[in-house]
Every structure is written in C-alpha cells, then in structure tokens.
Amino acid sequence: MAGGFCADSELSEVLSKLWELDDNKCYPGEDYEIDLQGFVTSTRDCSRDFARKSLFKWVDEDKVFSRETYRTFHDLLDNYEMDVSEAEEVTWEERKENWNFLEAIMKTEVMKEAHRFLASKGVAPDDDDDFKKMLHDIWFKLFRRKGGRSQNSCSFEHVFVGEGRGDDFIGLHNWIQFYLQEKAGNIDYHGFFRRETVRDDEIIRLIAMQFDWRDQKSKPLCSCFIGSSPEFEIAAYTVCLLLDRDGKIDCKIGEYEVELTVHSFGWNRKLGSAFMSASRLH
Length: 282
Fold this sequence. Notes:
Elements: H1 9-21, E1 32-34, E2 56-59, H2 61-64, H3 68-76, H4 92-106, H5 109-120, H6 128-140, H7 155-161, E3 163-165, E4 168-170, H8 175-183, E5 187-192, E6 198-200, E7 203-213, E8 217-225, H9 230-242, E9 247-253, E10 256-265, E11 270-278
Antiparallel strand pairs: 1-2, 3-4, 5-7, 6-7, 7-8, 9-10, 10-11
Helix pairs in contact: 1-5, 1-9, 3-4, 4-6, 5-9
C-alpha cells in the first residue's frame, strides 16, 4: 500500500462492490486500445505536445454502443452549449433522453446496489421512481456556474461532457466523451502524467493526461477512469455526494488506490465537479 494512503473503509467497501458488479466495464484489446506515448510533467504549461498520435487507437463502437447504458449515455453528449457564457435550453427531446438514460442505468445491478445502500443509510428514498427523480435533480437540473449570467450548467455536463470557460477547458472526466471528441478532431492529446497513471495486470484504468480543445482552450490536468461504465460513475459520485464525502477522499476500488474528488455545489446537492484519479501519495 502506498505510504500515507488512508482509505475510507465504508466508501471503499461500497465502491468496490459496485465495481465488482459492473459487468458493463470495458477492457483493452476487446473494447478499446490506447497509446499513452510521451509523458508530461507540468500542470501549468500546455504549450508542449509529447504525443504525436491520439490517445485512443480504436474503440469498438458497434460493440460498446450496443449496450443500453452506453447508447443512452451517448445520446446525452450533444445536448449542451460548450461555453459557460451561453445559457442552456433543454428541449423536450433532451428531457426524454435524460429519462431514457436514467431508466437504463436503473436496470443495472450497479445502480440497484447503490440505491439499496443509500436507502439503508437513510439518504435516499426507498421507492425506485422517487430515487430516479433524485438522480435527475442531482445530475440534470440546471444551475448557474461562475462565468455565466444564467442557468448555464448541470452536474452531468461538467463531469461527463466538459465546458469551456475563458481560455480554459473545465470538467470532462469521462473516457467515452474523451474518445468521441478526440475522434472528431476537437481534442489534441498531449501526453500522460506518469505518477498519476496506474496499470494493474497491464490494464491501464486510472490515467492523468493533458490536452488542448480545438487549439483554443487548454486542460492542463485531466483524470479519467478508463473503461468504467456510465452507471458505475453515476453510482460512485452519487454515493459520495449523498454521504457528504466532499473534497478529496482516499478509497480502494477493487485493486486500485484511488483519490476520489467530489465538490458539492450550493445548498441543493449539486456536483460542481467529481472525478477519480490515482492516489498521488506514492
């Protein structure tokens, strides 16, 4: 165990169980392949590019997006204004897509276990429909983020889609969105941080990297949990939020020593940000 690493035992137990139940997780060589290439060392300077190629060599889209939770997740990714200065307007079709996604993840063993656990702790309703409504309010209700003049963001947009603010790109801690934006030519991958990138049995899961967005905005440090399913990440961050695990928390997820960061937003339980990274206390 890494020196100084002190895992939250309750969180480690429940998140490890969710990870074990996640039969929708993806694997390298079967569902995708990545190429880490060169490593970066500065979290401030994004001017140097240590990767000539894309991070993702390929993703088997037919296989991955044939799964209901991935397919309905994919439908959500084009529903947002990228710049926080632009107000969000949610159409009827987008509302339908939000609920389709929630319906899909609620069928999974991961979300069933997360619901059971949270209800047992008295922080979530027992009724499935009431819990689904709670998830909707946490992840999809709009709020005003700094830099905007009106309701310009939501938890889902920041964590999974990403947003532009001034010269910076904020959020986007999801491997699927990273792949899709890289494929579209919007992301220029610059390389990875060696200390914060962890492999287990040659399966690289926790990766910290750097990229530019359309050669206009920079992301000096971005952490992703490669291969995790949408339902696992929604479940994990929801558990942390409702258990009031705000800030940086050490936890074990399976064999991985993880620093899980959750920043709540406002009084009505929104996620300002949430992401997983390798424990940096090496």
